Amino acid sequence: MPEAHKCDNENSNFCDFLDWALSFSPLANVQHHTVSFGEQLKVHFMFISSETHFSAELGERELILWEDIWLQKKELVKARIAALLGKTKKIYARNTNIIALDKTHAASFLNENHLMGFATAKYKVGLAYKGILVAVALFSSMKKYYRNGVLFHSAELVRFANMKGIHVQGGLSKLLDYFIAERKPDDIMTYADKEWTVGNTYKKLGFKKVDVSPPIMFWVHPQQLNRLSWQEVEKLFAPKQPLTNKELENYLLEKGYRQIFNQGNDKYLLLLK
Fold this sequence. Notes:
alpha+beta; Aminopeptidase; eight-stranded mixed sheet; 8 helices; 27% helix
């Protein structure tokens, strides 16, 4: 199994990022820091205590890294940055085998290798290299809908991840081809997190951007750094006696929580019919 790149002179840019990122602490009146890796990548670091959203337009080679994500998922973030800088070992998909996965194995892999972790999905498939799982994709069950009077069977690509430190060249394409051959959907849709989607991976695979979802609001405590959706807020703080939205917002503000807004998602569609 190839090993991930380590800090040395050859990888000084990536190691400089790690040294920089590890030294982060909230600074008075600082909204965010930006670190550039030449033309390869820009990373905007957002402080919970002083910023609610990233107001500028993101470029194609830019991403947003919130303080809570960094502090809670450092190893995953470092691996993702390394991959975007090309600091990973490459495996060719043609040298891997496709395997079906159960929920336990898929969840274990994605919780280790995807920033959003595991998600419930009907179909779970992976790529194995010399008996080791190196990539996983999740697909939804088929849904029926009509487009221009024509019946379509649609599936969703719910998750895809490589093993940390590894890039399976052609891995997503191989898993998509397998799913299409096995389940024969008329189209496949997926959502791309605008804060972390760098480059045009989906477009290279034939997907077209068809929609953009608005930013999503979360509540985060600057000290606890536990990010909560509104649904999670309602379950945690108003389980027994209903509160109005305004009452609940005031309660959270009194407890020191802050609102933050992500960039939303891009929706992509791969037409097969």
